[in-house]
Structure formats: C-alpha cells, structure tokens
C-alpha cells in the first residue's frame, strides 16, 4: 500500500520530531555519544511536511548534509540541541503545540556526574572510571503529561538474541513508556545506523503489530505516518 496516502492527508497537523543522537560532555573536548545519524528522524520530518504537516524538528548532532532537505522545507523549523537535557527542554516546548510527537532521537541514558571546565589530562592523574547519573526519560515524561488526543510515538533499536525477543522487548518497552506507538528495528554492529535502508515493526494497542515496514528510511517514514493517520482517524 506504499504511496497510497493522499498527498496532503496531514495538512495542518502539528508535529514535533526529534532526530539524531545526544552528546553528553565530559570536558570541553570529549563526550559520551551514540551512532545515530538522524536519518530516520529527518525522513519522518520530511515525510510529514511533504504531506502537509507543520513540523518542528529537534536535531541533536545531525550532519548538515543529512539536514539539507529539511532546512529548505517551508513547513519544517529546525531546533538544534546537544545534550539530553536540551533535547528534553526543546521537546517539552514543542509538545505544547503538537498533536503528534515522534521521538526518533537516540537519547543518552546516562551523563557524566561531573563536567570538567578544563580538558582532563593524564598529568592531573589517571582517570580510572567515570561516574554517571541517569537522564530523565523524555518520552515517558511527555506521555505521562500528554494532552487529550495527543499521539506519542517512541522508537527502539534492539539487539535481540533469539527469535521473538525483538517483539517481546518492544511490547514491554511500549507499556513501560506509556506511548501509543512504538517503532522497533533490529540493529547490530553492521546494520541499522548509517544504513540508508531500515526494517521496522510498528507496535500499537495491546502489543499488536500494526505495520511491518521495510525499505528506504523515507519509505519507512511514510508507512509510519500511514499508521499515525489511521490512529488519528
Ligand atoms: N528515550 C527518551 N529519553 C531517554 C531515553 C530514551 O525519550 N532518556 C526515548 C527514545 O527517544 C526512544 C525511546 O525512548 O523513542 C526508546 O529508547 P530506548 O533507548 O530504546 O529506551 P530505554 O528505555 O532507554 O531502554 P534501554 O535500556 O533498552 O536503552
Ligand atoms: Ca536507552
């Protein structure tokens, strides 16, 4: 059914999308980060805007080349953030106006307890460990305070070790976060991140698989929006 959607079936829909990966600084030159390129999140923003939605794209360390089309799109406003805390603030602001929230960003689960204003050096003594503190779960927070009718979508990248574990983990995660839809994909050392293609399951109410989408990140994005359009009615 790919491409079956109406070109402007999301006209006027207000959407907030997060994309990319947060970086948690350790000192002015080092950070804890992750491998998210932001491509899937940007594809979701572009797909929504091309279908008429008004999009706020909260981008955490997304390459300029990946963002180029979004920067030119009249229906997309980009906000740049760095850390999980900044991403949380930007998404909470965007959520006040948004009918649909898409958390495609890879958010650091932990941040260093202390950030040094000066570069850590071996001269000052060996660094044996880094103390971490947990970051707030942004999407769970947004879901707990959702407006009536607001649709909230989380993403998960999993590394299952047996058949069935991907969906089991996805269903538990959807429940734990209190989101409407959870989009899950399998990742590994050589799959999922920088790749242009993706395969995802969209999990909805009661853990039902509402879609199995595969192809370019743009094709997957359009399939996700088809599910959202259905949920919105
Ligand atoms: N997420 C979030 N805030 C965090 C961590 C994650 O909003 N502090 C969001 C992500 O943007 C994503 C969803 O939660 O939409 C799932 O992320 P994931 O890392 O899979 O979930 P976690 O609860 O952190 O589980 P895990 O321990 O497997 O990393
Ligand atoms: Ca996590």
Automatic annotation (TrEMBL):
KW Chloroplast (keyword) present: no
Q: What are the entry keywords? A: Decarboxylase, Flavoprotein, FMN, Ligase, Lyase, Magnesium, Metal-binding, Multifunctional enzyme
EC assignment: the record states 4.1.1.36, 6.3.2.5
Record's keyword annotation contains Metal-binding: yes
Cofactor requirement: FMN; Mg(2+)
The pathway is:
Cofactor biosynthesis; coenzyme A biosynthesis; CoA from (R)-pantothenate: step 3/5; Cofactor biosynthesis; coenzyme A biosynthesis; CoA from (R)-pantothenate: step 2/5
Locate the DNA/pantothenate metabolism flavoprotein C-terminal domain: which residues?
Answer: 10-230
Region annotation (Phosphopantothenate--cysteine ligase) ranges:
15-233
Gene Ontology molecular function: phosphopantothenate--cysteine ligase activity; phosphopantothenoylcysteine decarboxylase activity
Q: Which residues bind CTP?
A: 109, 119, 155, 173, 177
Its recorded reaction(s) are: N-[(R)-4-phosphopantothenoyl]-L-cysteine + H(+) = (R)-4'-phosphopantetheine + CO2; (R)-4'-phosphopantothenate + L-cysteine + CTP = N-[(R)-4-phosphopantothenoyl]-L-cysteine + CMP + diphosphate + H(+)
Details of cofactor binding? Binds 1 FMN per subunit.
- The lineage's top-level taxon is Bacteria
Function, in words: Catalyzes two steps in the biosynthesis of coenzyme A. In the first step cysteine is conjugated to 4'-phosphopantothenate to form 4-phosphopantothenoylcysteine, in the latter compound is decarboxylated to form 4'-phosphopantotheine. Catalyzes two sequential steps in the biosynthesis of coenzyme A. In the first step cysteine is conjugated to 4'-phosphopantothenate to form 4-phosphopantothenoylcysteine. In the second step the latter compound is decarboxylated to form 4'-phosphopantotheine.
| Family note | In the N-terminal section; belongs to the HFCD (homo-oligomeric flavin containing Cys decarboxylase) superfamily. In the C-terminal section; belongs to the PPC synthetase family.
Write down what this protein is called: Coenzyme A biosynthesis bifunctional protein CoaBC
Protein's organism: Microbacterium commune
What lineage does the source organism belong to?
A: Bacteria, Bacillati, Actinomycetota, Actinomycetes, Micrococcales
Instruction: Give the fragment's position in the full-length protein.
Output: 177 to 409 of 409
């Amino acid at each position: 059914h790919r491409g079956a959607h109406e070109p402007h079936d999301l006209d006027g829909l207000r959407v907030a999308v997060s994309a990319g990966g947060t970086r948690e600084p350790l000192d002015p030159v080092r950070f804890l980060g992750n491998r998210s390129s932001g491509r899937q999140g940007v594809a979701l923003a572009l797909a929504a805007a091309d279908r008429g939605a008004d999009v706020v794209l909260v981008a955490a360390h997304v390459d300029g080349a990946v963002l180029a089309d979004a920067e030119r799109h009249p229906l997309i406003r980009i906000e740049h953030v760095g850390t999980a805390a900044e991403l949380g603030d930007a998404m909470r602001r965007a959520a006040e106006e948004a009918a649909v929230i898409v958390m495609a960003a890879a958010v650091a689960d932990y941040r260093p307890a202390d950030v040094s204003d000066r570069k850590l050096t071996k001269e000052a003594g060996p660094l044996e460990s880094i103390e971490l503190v947990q970051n707030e779960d942004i999407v769970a927070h947004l879901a707990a305070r959702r407006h009536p009718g607001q649709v909230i979508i989380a993403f998960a990248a999993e590394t299952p070790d047996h058949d069935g574990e991907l969906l089991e983990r996805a269903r538990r995660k959807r429940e734990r976060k209190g989101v409407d839809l959870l989009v899950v994909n399998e990742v590994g050392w050589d799959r999922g991140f920088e790749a242009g293609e993706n395969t995802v399951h969209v999990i909805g109410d009661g853990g039902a698989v509402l879609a199995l989408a595969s192809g370019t990140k743009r094709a997957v994005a359009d399939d996700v929006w088809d599910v959202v359009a259905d949920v919105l009615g």
